[in-house]
Write a structure and sequence with these properties.
Helix 1 packs across helix 5 and helix 3 crosses helix 4. The protein has a domain of 116 residues: Winged helix-like DNA-binding domain superfamily/Winged helix DNA-binding domain (Arc Repressor Mutant, subunit A, Orthogonal Bundle). It is globular, with a radius of gyration of 21 Å. 38% of the residues lie in helices and 11% in strands. The strands form two sheets. Strands 1-2 form a two-stranded antiparallel sheet. Strands 3-4 form a two-stranded antiparallel sheet. It is of the alpha+beta class. The protein starts with 49 loop residues before the first helix and ends in a 5-residue tail after the last helix.
Length: 172
């Protein structure tokens, strides 16, 4: 009931602090700040392709969960997917909500459960259950639904941009 998920401690990162010769009245630059990812950076985070944002819209939980699940289906350097469940001629992800919340780091298991259910209801995630395999639920992403949602989002964006220009947006 009152159990809160354990959070990983944040790594201390060198912040863009003012040097002796800098103007103290001027705020530091975003470049090289602790909020920007740089080459060789080992900070953890969820990074996603644009299609994830297009199909999830403004829903943060769906975005983070779908981005993390999609990353599991990516191919490793050896050319094999990170997921290891191959069943019914498809690759599947097997994860508990708690484990997925730990992977995402900024959502609780309850928020992950809500996002997974919402993504499943929208058809983006496909779930399967086979009690004989002793796996509670398996997940995979439906590329057909993703393509349809991505195209619809791109049409909405193009239409909004067109209307914006007609209403007095930038003519250039």
């Amino acid at each position: 009931m009152g159990n809160k998920p354990t959070r990983l401690p944040r790594q201390s990162i060198t912040v863009n602090t003012l040097s002796v010769d800098e103007d103290e009245d001027r705020p530091p630059d975003f470049v090289r700040s602790k909020y920007q990812r740089v080459v060789g950076d080992d900070r953890q985070g969820t990074f996603a392709h644009d299609w994830v944002a297009l199909v999830t819209g403004t829903n943060k939980a769906e975005y983070l969960v779908l981005a993390r699940i999609a990353s599991w289906f990516a191919e490793s350097k050896s050319g094999k997917p990170y997921v290891r469940e191959f069943w019914n001629d498809r690759w599947w992800l097997y994860k508990f909500y708690r484990g997925l919340a730990k992977d995402v780091r900024v959502l609780t298991p309850h928020e992950v459960r809500w996002a997974v259910r919402s993504l499943t209801k929208k058809g983006i995630l496909i779930t399967d259950y086979d009690p004989s395999r002793r796996k509670l639920k398996l997940y995979r992403i439906d590329p057909v639904v993703v393509a349809e949602l991505e195209e619809a989002a791109e049409r909405r964006i193009a239409e909004a941009m067109r209307k914006g220009r007609d209403v007095g947006g930038d003519e250039n």
